[in-house]
């Protein structure tokens, strides 16, 4: 069966409103959580990987609140995302799942794994979690996101997309047009501005570099699930030195760095990423042993 955006699309009503997700495959549950940025959705992040993982897993690709076709929630964005994802698992009667999270999705996944350890079989992150050790915050990609929130043009979407990848040929006119269309949808643009306005980034910067900086990583030692941190060596959004602290703090953790790769390892290093993560998931799935 060919999995398409339409034939995998599902909606569910939760207390806060509607959540949209894609579902494909059967087997143990694999929850895939997308990142942030202009025009991002669960489908945009993982459409190329869905068929591969659906061969062995029941894949749930969620649109986080305020992204894609999911309703927004108020308050702290990360807390809101965590609560909505856990509520989605409850609604779908999923007791336990493997989690893959990209960037913001990795941050959300890390909090779920720390707060609900009994619900997480394994945790894989593509960038996202950690704290800058040697690199400046915000990095190039985040600064370009802020520029887009102030002047949401197609040109600024293109410049941001080019910061996301090592291989510039991946940034096609079709990708730019698709992301720009979704990025300027009013709900999506409001979500992006909430996270990446200049004022928001200034607050985050002060928090990450001040006396409360360790609060961004204090939950990591509570993650007991087997954890795989993946990172692009050439990530211009979240430089790879960010990975070093979580690699040490998470008890059962390993780190894999992809060469010639930016922020989207699952897209830019598709075959290597799928092979690595599939082996990790199978190793830590009790029903396969």
From TrEMBL:
Pfam families: Abhydrolase_1. Residues 28-268 form the AB hydrolase-1 domain. GO terms for molecular function: 4,5-9,10-diseco-3-hydroxy-5,9,17-trioxoandrosta-1(10),2-diene-4-oate hydrolase activity. Its EC number is 3.7.1.17. Keywords: Hydrolase. The keyword Hydrolase applies. InterPro entries: AB_hydrolase_1 (IPR000073), AB_hydrolase_fold (IPR029058), Epox_hydrolase-like (IPR000639). It is an enzyme of class 3 (hydrolase). This is 4,5:9,10-diseco-3-hydroxy-5,9,17-trioxoandrosta-1 (10),2-diene-4-oate hydrolase.
């Amino acid at each position: 069966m060919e999995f398409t955006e339409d034939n995998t699309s599902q909606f569910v009503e939760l207390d806060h409103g509607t959540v949209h997700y894609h579902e494909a495959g059967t087997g143990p549950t694999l929850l895939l959580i997308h990142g942030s940025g202009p025009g991002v959705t669960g489908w945009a992040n993982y459409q190329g990987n869905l068929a591969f993982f659906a061969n062995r897993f029941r894949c749930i690709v969620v649109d986080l609140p305020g992204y894609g076709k999911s309703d927004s929630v108020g308050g702290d964005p990360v807390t809101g995302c965590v609560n909505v994802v856990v509520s989605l698992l409850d609604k779908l009667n999923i007791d336990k799942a493997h989690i893959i999270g990209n960037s913001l999705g990795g941050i959300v996944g890390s909090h779920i794994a720390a707060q609900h350890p009994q619900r997480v079989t394994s945790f894989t992150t593509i960038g996202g979690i950690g704290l800058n050790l040697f690199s400046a915050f915000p990095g190039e990609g985040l600064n370009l996101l802020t520029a887009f929130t102030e002047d949401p043009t197609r040109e600024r979407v293109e410049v941001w997309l080019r910061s996301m990848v090592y291989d510039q040929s991946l940034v096609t006119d079709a990708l730019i047009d698709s992301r720009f269309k979704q990025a300027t949808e009013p709900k999506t643009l409001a979500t992006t501005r909430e996270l990446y306005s200049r004022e928001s980034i200034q607050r985050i910067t002060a928090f990450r570099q001040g006396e409360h900086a360790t609060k961004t990583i204090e939950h990591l030692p509570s993650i007991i699930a087997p954890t795989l941190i993946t990172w692009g060596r050439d990530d211009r959004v979240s430089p790879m030195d960010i990975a070093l602290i979580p690699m040490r703090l998470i008890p059962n953790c390993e780190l894999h760095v992809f060469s010639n790769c930016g922020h989207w390892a699952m897209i830019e290093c598709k075959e290597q990423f799928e092979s690595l993560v599939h082996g990790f998931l199978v190793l830590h799935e009790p029903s396969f042993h």
